[in-house]
Amino acid sequence: MSFLQRKRAIKLTADVAMAFAKDGAKWSHALIMNLAKKPKNKTLLRSILGSEYERLTKPCLSWKMPRAKKILQRSFKMHSRIKKGARRLPGVNAASVHAEAAVTRTKVLKRLVPGGEHWDNSSLLEETLDYVISLRAQVDLMHLLVKALNVPNLK
Amino acid sequence: MDINKKDKFGLEKTGDHPNYHSSGMSADRQFGNPSIGLVSAHPMVSSPCPSVSMVESFHPSLWNPSAHSQNSGFCGNNVQSSMAASNSLPAGNLVPGPLRLDMGWNPSDSSSKGSGIFLQTGPGVLSPSLSHFPTNSAFIERAARFSSFHGGNLNGMVSPFGTAESLSSYSNTPKGVLGAQIQQSKMSTTEARVDASLPVDHGSSSRSPMREQRDKGSLHGAGVLGNESAEPEFSGGAREEAPNLASPAGDSSSKGLAAKKRRRSDQDIEPDQLQGASQPSVGTSKDTMDTDQKPEQNSSTMATVKPNEKQANDSSDAPKEDCFHVRARRGQATNSHSLAERVRREKISERMKFLQDLVPGCNKVTGKAVMLDEIINYVQSLQRQVEFLSMKLAAVKPRLDFNMEGLLSKDLFHSRGGPSSSIGFSPDTIHPQLHPSQQALFQAGMSGIVNPSDALRTAINAQLSSINGYKEPMPQIPNAWNGELHNVMQMTFGANPPLNTQELNGKPCEGFPM
């Protein structure tokens, strides 16, 4: 295996292990599903997950917001936006800038957290919290491994 | 090469459990819960303890080997000895350590698979074992403060889970910290109410919703309950934040379970209150509510309050209560929409607070946008670190390591059945690359499986002794490194163009050994 292949395999394994360890979170399921989409990952995933492979790669739509609720939310947002728009002063408003900045950053965060595009804001934050914890643990573990295996530092 | 991955997988799995055990045991000692034997639930349950301790004390220099010496107070002997040993002999004893822990973990695993729904962040437990032990005492103090507050509630909630009795201690601890925080920040009136309702809670805690949630599966249950718990219109009480802390710890399902349980008990309490109390409660409109039970009960109490009236006076009269109704605060509109909005905003701000604790250096930062910025930077830096570390691990040439990792994985394979099928890799990948010397060592290792720690030690010694012979991998690596570093940089730039400058200037990457 080439160096890059190995690195990719290691990263894949680490991600799968992290996601698999945290089975109760939405992001873990989404991560495994994203990884399973690529055909070259399939064999590795299958061997790692073993019996759980089928269960985990089956798309779980329950945590995605149902369409009716999405429509409701969207109409509610439009409604509130209309109301706010009537009150807002013309010109650049500090509050509006602030709100827009928050919206753009939320979009970025949705891209970062696996599966984030489907959740609403509050559950996004919750999953982000969970994901950060798991990521940190993953980093710590890999540090441990590096130390244990005495990987030499390249200058 | 593949053995590296399995090693990581095995270590990661085993790494979770020591903290799980130890935190369970320490929690037991703190709360004096006699019913808690060996922690047997799913490894994830351990997380609330360590995750909160991580929250308290995450330092950039987390990866300080000297911090390992702090382990003594917290973890069991296994981890402690492994960590202490790691200071002196990084390669030698560290690997046997997780093995021992793994063997301790196995019995719990078999019984825990059934109760897999009660999950809390698992991976988080690893880092606390390394450096966060001094903080745990403070954490445990606060948890102990809260233990009486919530002990009955959680014991009742957890008992249906059979082997997962120790979960109550885990539920105690995160809620304990949460409670401590709340006590500092919220008014005590809410707590009085919660105290009154908690004993009733214990009795009326409905186990069936939890069981049915279990049956539906963790994710589905989490989704449904997450929506439901979005509804309960807490104007900010201990009970709502208790599930919220469980969720930051990573268990949305347990949070949902707790929320649902409290909702059920609340609904039981409500008729009593209706008869006894005289104040109508301002229920929020059920725009986003899924269940029908709340509206039925609330409509009876809302008879006098029309949702669309803006009655500041009424809302100021009604005291703030910690229940599923939202009391409109003084001077705020009692419009049903705005109430629901306010609830959602409060939920989000709560979660932001937890994230603030988690992301280092965000205590002074205020405002959603800046906070989100920091979170994004942090997540990106963590992801880049993972990338970088996987590169580093790929640099370990899979020659001698095969023995060690093959032994590790073999041991895992023997000790537990299920998803350790990564072991399947080892025979396939080992053979093509084994040298004769390694093969002999490997076989010796295999036969020494009975005493894996000794076998590992011999394998590692062999590795260390023969490491001199392997020079050829080094020259080819720098070229690959350059290519990969470009990839990492591209990942940085490609993922987030608008925030580029901030990324580069902002958060320092912690623990980067370069």
Question: How would you summarize this macromolecular structure in one to three sentences?
Answer:
The complex is a heterodimer of chains A (155) and B (514). With 155 residues, chain A is an all-alpha fold. Helix content of chain A is 75%, strand content 0%.
Helix count of chain A, per DSSP? 7
Distance between the termini of chain B: 23 Å
Low-confidence stretches of chain B: 1-135, 150-323, 415-480, 494-514
Approximately what portion of the residues of chain A adopt beta-strand conformation? under 5%
Order of helices and strands of chain A: HHHHHHH
H-E string of chain B:
HHHHHHHHHHHHHHHHHHHHHH
Secondary-structure-derived class of chain A: mainly alpha
Q: Main β-sheet of chain A, in a few words?
A: none
Molecular structure report:
The complex is a heterodimer of chains A (155) and B (514). By secondary structure, chain A is mainly alpha-helical. Chain A is built from seven helices and no strands. In chain A, helix 1 crosses helix 3, helix 1 packs across helix 7 and helix 2 (26-37) crosses helix 3. Chain B is mainly alpha-helical and 514 residues long. Chain B is built from 22 helices and no strands. The radius of gyration of chain B is 26 Å and the shape is elongated. At the A-B interface, helix 1, helix 3, helix 5, helix 6 and helix 7 of A face helix 1, helix 5, helix 10, helix 12 and helix 15 of B.
